[in-house]
Amino acid sequence: MSRRTILALSGGAATALALTAASLPWTIAAPQAASFAGRDLARRYGLGLAVAGPATLTLLPAPSLRFSGVRLHRGGHDLVASEGLQVQLGLAGLLAGRAEVTGLVLERARITLPEGGEADWAEPAARLAARVAAGRGRHLRRLVLVDATLTARDPRTGLLERATGVNLVASWPRPSAGLDLSAAFTWRGVPAALTLTGLRPRELAAGAATPLAAALTWKAGTAEGSAEIDGSLVWPGEADGQTNSRSGEPAGGPRLSGQGRFATPALPGTLAWLGIAPGPATPAGPVSFEGRLVARPGAVEWPEIRVQVGDNRLEGAAAASLVRGRLAVSGTLAAERLDLSGLVPGAEPGGGWSRAPLTLDGLTRGDLDLRLSAASARLGPVEAQDVAAGLLVREGTLEATLGRATVQGGTVKGRAALAALPAGLDARLQGSADRVDLGGLFADLGWPRWILGRAQGTVALDSAGSSLADLMGRLAGRAAATVEGGEILGLSLIDLAQRPETAATALRRGGRTHFERARVSLTVSDGVAEIGQGQVRGASLSASLGGRVFLAERRLGAEARIEPLSEGRAGGGFAIEGPWLRPVIRPLAVRAITSPALPAAASAYAP
């Protein structure tokens, strides 16, 4: 073997040995290594570095120092405690004999904001923002968290919140490039994942807008969903002492705008995971919305939004804010078709009024100011067109208004208000109807179609109680209704007047009674409606109605008097009793007229 070959092989071996040695970790004095890396952390970020364990140096593939038992602190408070820390160093600085920290890898770190934590973090954040904005010196190109725990105090509740199992990678290769971040963590028992791309720290630190694309997903049990944003972010800082007029909080801080999307198959579970009490009439099924948004701390506005709740699709504008843990939502939404059947409570199995306790606790945990319009809508079995409605919720109160709706060719308006009482609810109802087809309405409701015609009426009722049965038993107010040009189905009043003995089977035999006008007014007190001005007038008869409707028991106790208008035909009186939808008719006994010439006791013997 030639001398040149031997020298070449020796040189290659020496190079390989040098590369191998540079790739291996070398144990070095921990205090000196910590002081060397800590000078750069203190100069750039105002952070102190304390190391309890050994230190190693690795030169390849990139210079780095590795420490065990690490604390990053400021102002006497530990901000980060980590089982392991890898400090990545710039090669040029290392050759010049100084540390230039370009990356940090924290293993099983515990990162916390202690009492007064905002002040402890303020100086490092301010220094970082100033350096990034000015573009001075080298920047932190990479941050990695492995199985970390983040702890902070919730400003809404004052309670400590903790994210565990945090695995995060943030990469910012060049000052002019964007920052990319991906993270997975568990918060409140729900695994979640976050990705962020396109953020430009230099523009953000300078108070200019930066593009941003972010996505968050979460899934565990009933908490499942996703949120996405594609837009821009700006952080102008405090706005010269201005405050938000609604929340009283500073108006500065980050502002996010762009196109956003949110979707969850179960909204109550997601709200509970976020620590937000479900608001009024929170849908239990899938909910999604997307549109243009503008967000700031504690509030978000959607100048344009498309909402889907189950099969309902709505468009309009909305806003939401979170003030001291209370969610407030407002919106104006329109739909071609709206199905609100899920808001109608089911009937009691026995057909009576429910005795389940009534409370507004589940409906007034948040504020709501919602205005809805729909070309057509369904509420339970009732169809309506050209609907304009509103729902207003404040703490302890709920008010629903029906500005207008077309039901069976007529116009319906109304207002219902509920207010919480120490035990139960205070309820008030006002409404009016004009030219409503009674036959069609009864058919929609599944009631017997015993009367036809166009009806108009008014109602004003109020009550207080702890259950629906209690409310009905204490109901008070007035109601009136008039029906023009209609007929009573299944009963001929003329035949009934002529043959009162057939009253028991009159409803089963069928028949019809045409009338020009029917009117009834009710005065309600303690759940009993007193019938006043009960009148039916037709071409061949007139009839009057009096008595009571027992609302709590759903039964009638009334009397009717039928007077044929034709000469030679006798009238008659009848009792109408029993369930109000299926009453029984029986003739009233005719009182015997005694002769004034006979003693009262002898009337029993009169022929």
UniProtKB/TrEMBL annotation:
Its BP terms in the Gene Ontology are:
regulation of protein targeting to membrane
Residue ranges of the region described as Disordered: 232-261
Name the Pfam families for this protein: AsmA
GO CC terms, sorted: plasma membrane
Residue ranges constituting the AsmA domain according to the UniProt record: 359-530
Q: What is this protein called?
A: AsmA family protein
